[in-house]
## 1
Amino acid sequence: MGRGAPDAAPECVPARPPRLVGRRAELESIIQALTGAAATVLIEGEAGVGKSRLLREALHTHAVQARGPLVAMCLPFKEALTLQPVVDAVRQARTGPAGIEFTALAGALRPLFPEWAHQLPPDPGPLGDAGAARHRLFRALGELLEGLGIEILVIEDLHWADDATLGFLLFLAAEHTRRVSLVLTYRPEEVPAGSALRSLAARSTTGAGHVRVRLAPLSVSHSAELVSSMLDDEHVSDAFARLLHRRTEGLPLALEESVRLLGDRRDLVRSHGEWVRRALEEISVPPTIRDAVLERFARQPPDVRQVVRAAAVLTEPAEESLIAHISALPARRAVAAAAAALRSGTLIEQAPGRLGFRHILAARAVHDDIPLHTRRALHLRAAQALEQTKPAPLARLAHHFREAGARNRWSHYAERAGDLALASGDYQNAVAMMQMLLAEGELPTEGVVRWCQKFPVFACTGYLGGTDLIRTLRSLIDDAALDVVERGRIRLQLGRMLVLTGQYGAGAAELQCGISELADRPLEAVGAMSALARTVAPWLSVAEQRRWLDRVTELARTVLPQEYRLTMLVERVTAMLGMGDPAGWKAARQIPATISSTRDAVDLTRADLNIGDEAILWGHYGEARQRLTASHRSAVERGFLRMRDLAATTLIHLDWHTGAWEGLAERAAAVAADAGDEPLIQLDASLVTGHVTAAAGDLDAAADRLTHVLVDSRARGLFSMSLEAAAALARVRLAQGHLDEALRVTEEGWHAVLRKGVWLAAADIAPIRVQVLVAAGQQADAVELVSAFARGARGCTAPLLKASLATCRAHMIDAPRKPARAAAAWAAAATAWEALPRPYEGLLAREAQARCLAAAGEGDGALALLVATRDGLCELGARHDAERLVGALNSAGPKSGSRNGRRGPLGYGDQLSPRELEVVRLMLAGLTNPEIARTLARSPKTIAVQLKSAMRKHGVASRTALAVSVMQAGIEPAVPAEETS
């Protein structure tokens, strides 16, 4: 381009749309991914960097077009309708589902596509589990996409997507028989913390067919090429390119808007057949895209500005007739203005007959610059026009009426949008919509109560106690306009929500108040009474729980409708077992084994989950595993996601008790990661990890983790969990030599047992409390505790209580003065633990028994028992305890049976123990560690420990060196079993 001034009157520059510049490699990778097997393509970058333009280039290729891409767009509206981007895109692509063969599952789509209801299967009915309802909806929508022949689903601006849309994409990405490729664009800097989009991006970064494109601004040379493509491919000088790059930072959208603006200003002109420009120092490049858009907008004629404002209010591409209507211009002037807006490039035709902005940044810049009064009037015209659309676009209507300041109409459509979300099973979006209405809707009293009663409480998982939702309900309760009954109804919802989110103490308090306020309406309050009957809050005594249970039982017998009786039976069984009432097991046998409805499926899955959980507290570990496994299987099959995760976590906790420790910490971490912020699962997984960490010997880390669980579970009113955490923490503190801390922790736990009166929950805390009292010389307090425990446990048939009480009594016997009697007591305790089975507690009891036998002069028996106990602890994975026994065996020396008269590791001197010798001989026979483990019925971890011990004794560091050393010592390989048969 020349530098001289033009010799003739300049003309306005007719800038052309720019070519795609600097993105060839990215374009080729996207096309390659979309023309192969099902793939996930992520395109990320800041606003204006060219994500949509790159995507359009890929979609316009013949190979990609042949795959039938469906393009959806997310909008920055607060009012999000369930799966709105996908639903809107399907509606635009297809007027109906004719010709598609649906399964019964597709009936779940009726709320989303009411205009198709006569062509869809019947509504499958509500589900009592939020995860199950959402999963069913996702499967139905996936079936619809498959029926439509959609092979590529494109969603733009995913950072604005509703949670249901993100969940649906995760569902599609995880399908084993996946057929749909995903193309997703988003701005990383606008993705909220904790968004499912982060999980989706993390899952889609590796593997064949997965492409992640990160777009950066253009270089100076590429900026010059883009500008040149807009100006008939004329050369752009380096100085001008650097100026534009410096002012626009290489953002393609900013470059394009700047060039168009400079042309509108006639800062770029063509004279005497060539492009020329003014001196660089005379050119002012706008500092932001917004400034460029608004300056170009201001240069348009009034009619064009009015049409562009109407398009900006709609945000998304719209029919020209709708834009003209909103503009309020006469028809001919509106048509002419739209044509002028297209010629100037202010608007573009994004689809046949649908006009919009090149980029949403431009639409928002124009929208936000409209004077408030005018903007509200335009939104009102948009809302009134959209009210004539069938089916009604509820979220858009709510948005436009809200922006218009029409609060009543906004509340009306927001409520309808919430109802649709509920009907679709999108409970999370329904809760968000309801919270917005309650907080901002200025609803009349009857509307507030109606909305509170609509809350899908079972959807409120996670730490919702820290969100606006619970704070909003609390503020509504203080509203003086509510009468007693209305306040009671709201309070019950709040209480249920608090209980479900793990805040049992606060939730129980609200439930009690709500029941009092609904004293004349017991049927409305029966669910709250049932919740109190089975509450785990430590301050509600078992006697109070029993009174609530009796009221529920009477109401269930007299006035409760038949369809709710199974639910109440499950509640009653759970409450009885939680109180330690043996009659609960008889009542559990009344629960039917078969189902006749979806409601029954929820109740029976929950019954197995609850009874399995209580069976752990009783020590019925076989029944616990059977129940929990059945619950988990049912939850997986039916999509009850929360119950699935709770069952999985409880099974892991059961594995801790029963000694199935292989990979336990990793399994707990995996379940916790999948469960998100669900507090009960996170705490349970953390408790198991604390147990494993302590057994491995990392006492400081274990103490930190167990302290967190103890503090959080106490704050939430989780009675049994807080006692188990306190017992584990006290054991760690005692091992660290912090007796005072162990006393303090167990004192708080024991007093909680006395207040509550549920002796079943004392099984973990009682033995360690007695142990620390005896260690502190407080024998009288220990005697009083054991007596109280024995009285309280009388009549309860729980095997766990028998083992716990036996351990307490063994701690009470003065071992130095009565070692034989103490050994017998520890043997009885060990036998009780082993019968459950709870091997870790049994082995610790055997260790105590062995020490008492040694004190009684039975050295050989003590040594044999210590060796067996040490081997058991090794096999279990209790490294810290096994190492403690190594010291005990070493100190026993030759008097206790050392084979060669020397003290050495594990009491066998430098010789291999019999179990180590078995392992070494199989190693010499060529078996791997897993093969040796299967042959000897031990865990691979135990085999590794025994081989390491053998290497240490022979002074070598590898299996090969060990093989050489032991063969030189005359040890021969084992003969495989099949050779000796």
## 2
Amino acid sequence: MPLLDPGHGALRPRTDAGHVPAHDRVPESLAGGTPQPLRGDLTRLLGEAKVLWKVSDLVRYASDASPYRFLPQVVVVAEDTDDVSKVLAYARERGRQVVFRAAGTSLNGQAQGEDILVDVRRHWAGVDVLGEDGARARIRPGTTVVRANAALAPYGRLIGPDPASAIACTVGGVVANNASGMTAGTTRNSYRTVASLTLVLPSGTVVDTGAPDADEHLARAEPALCEGLMALKAEIEADGELTARIRAKYELKNTNGYRLDAFLDGDSPVSILRGLAVGSEGTLGFISEVVFDTLPLHRRTSTALLFFPSLAAAASAVPRFNEAGAMAVELMDGNTLRASVSVAGVPADWAELPKGTAALLVEFRTPDEAAQTEREREADAVLADLELVAPVLSVTNAFTRDPKTIGFYWKARKAFVSAVGGSRPSGTTLITEDFAVPPSRLAEACEALLALQERHGFDAAVAGHAAHGNLHFLLAFDAAKDGDVARYAAFMDDFCRLTVERFDGSLKAEHATGRNIAPFLQLEWGERATELMWRIKQTVDPEGVLAPRVLLDRDPKAHLRGLKSIPEVEAVADPCIECGFCEPTCPSGDLTTTPRQRIVLRREMLRQPGASAVNESLLESYGYDAVDTCAGDSTCALACPVGIDTGAMMKDFRHRRHSPREERNAERAARRFHLVERSARLAVAAADGLRRKVLPKRGERLLESLTGAARRAVRPDLVPEWLPQIPSAAAKRLPATDREGAAAVYYPACVNRIFGEPDGYEGPSLPQSMVIVSARAGRPVWIPEDVVGTCCATIWHSKGYEAGNALMADRILEAAWRWTDGGELPLVVDASSCTLGIGEEVVPYLSPANRKLHERLTVIDSVAWAAEELLPRLTVERRAGSAVVHPTCSMQHLGETEQLRAVAQACAEEVVVPVDARCCGFAGDRGMLHKELTASATAREAAEVTARDFDAYLSANRMCEVGMDHATGGRGYRSVLLELERATRPD
């Protein structure tokens, strides 16, 4: 064991004497993880790396965005269709069941299983745009909708489905659930826009429905299946009443049960199978690839958020906007609007909206200016006849073209589930349901639903895709209380009867059947159609291998089984509804755990009794899997609709693990940082000299060996590992500057005072370039003489050293106050993470007096300074042919990624921001403490970058540049300001 290993005792949850273990806790029998022979069988079949078996693995995959929780016996991380076929063959032979999971954003337990769970996200991302016009795209199932549309955007195309969870949900899940979203309706959903798909059947047969010989291939491989499908088609078509009923049911949005119209639309087994696969929820096969017919991306957008005195008034306006050609008409009731104030950017005065208020989010999308002007004219004509209200000052009731305002409107709308759910009482489970009624009866349905919620004691809230009669609502209750579960059960009985008997509606409009509605399938479809669905399952999956009880279940109380308890955890994470929006942004998601999984694991610890073998196993893994490999970049907070910062929780856990001695040493380092800084620069210089001059052939290996031995002896999370991409030392002295006439104070971050530029770079250093280019633009900057020994405090903050963090926060604030003459000049910082640190992150740790001073400081990132102050005053003399840009996570927090792009575009003819760019995971020195974190976080971006050559590799933070250098094999990432200086240098 390393000398300073902290153990896991400090991470043990703090519970009071009255702690009661949860009814749904993981049993002690699984403390050792996957039982034998299952673990051994799959390890031999697939290899050790593809089988996740620890109890922590099982727990983190047991939850999705739904109110259900089912613990798998094992998790398989499949890499290709061969792996999937092997697992299916094993399951058939051993009588086991298989469930496929991608993003886990499904709202009704479709991504959960109780036996073998197969992860089909990690190795299943990618988009192949077909043809020069992008009219079709081949997309792998682990690709998020946002990623797919980003690849199509240069072609002016997009895919039809647009669910609110697009940043996280994957194409495989979208197709398997026939999820639609804001604009897809019944004409742009997966069923209508999927041209073909590749399906791995339960038998292991792989069918590409787009292949010319697909029917012949399927007939040879699966004759009984083909015969069964055609027999079902003939039976359905012979029943005129049933046929008419099927057609009528799909005039509304409907994802309840199998797509019976596949038998009416398809004329062969393969075409029928293509239709059945859409919305089948993984019960008929694994969709390994999808070819979409893409749709035009109309970039010109006009949007309004319109407020009405009542739901009825809002609903009555919906047909008018539909007739005017609106692409989206979204409804939010007053409770939804008020709850949305928890979302960053939503006006605080929404909390004061009257109870009866409702709003419509209306959007028109057009291809050109002329069409946009005409749509706006038609929309204004509609507005003139409406009964609109403006009960609070922020309401405008007007159409806008401003992208920021439009983005805010959609953020508020898409946060319905998380914003409303995030404000639920602590300890309650959240259920999200959707249904559809004829659009003409929308207002009636809203009022009936709200009355039903109130009658059963639930907080009333409703939102939805009003243009399509599709409504959403939420229920919060405590699954650990029998009375609450009984209340929920009674509500569901009444709700389902109301929807079917009063409105002849769809019990599921776009979320797919799932475990919550499976018991009510026959209520909606009737006995005849429901039995046909059971026969479809028997025909395609005769052994019942795939996803049992997800879509079909004869148990009338199946929706009450597996409801998850929600133990109260740390306050920062307690509002989490496990939606999964955070996961695609997380640097460690493909290595260890995601933010959602970190919280899920914490909740399981609190389900357990105080002395628990399960807890010991969870804690043993949690230190590395959750705490050590968290980059602490907090991009999860940006993705989370209610701003949960799991990174902050991990920093607190790091603090808990520190011994008093470690805290004192960290404070001493902060107090004597001028010595630490000089020592660090000397160490970098010595190491550089060793590898280049003393031992040019063996220096790198020696440094790696020495740091590796120290890491093993002391602790890997304390001692950095040497990386070949670590640059040489910075110059001892900073450039000389004058205070008189300076337009800003320039603060070279400590990282740029310690490390120099990448290998092969010839030109002025970053501090020199900043001084030169600012003077060249007539906006000279001044570097204070006493910057050495100061820091933005991120070093201590990111590691959870509280005393050192507070000391350095106050020191940098007081120095900045003095340097800027009490805020008279702006402070320009040349590392984005340090800009964020000084500008925002230090605030909670400042003394009360310094907090007031901070309010009067203006802290500007050097890239924003260049984009806004320098570029308009500079002349570009030369441009590189091409540049690839890595936007740092700090720039995302600062909202300045567009400024980075703007400066890069001034310097290069072609600027590429990789589609898969995200936090590099280097996080100061974390990439040297755990280089596997950066390797995993950057894998997709690095593959995109190294697929071609660029003339320049640019970013805005020295350690992120080192991380990207490491990921791309030494491409020479450097600050965009260096390139700006070169581009504007006079001939």
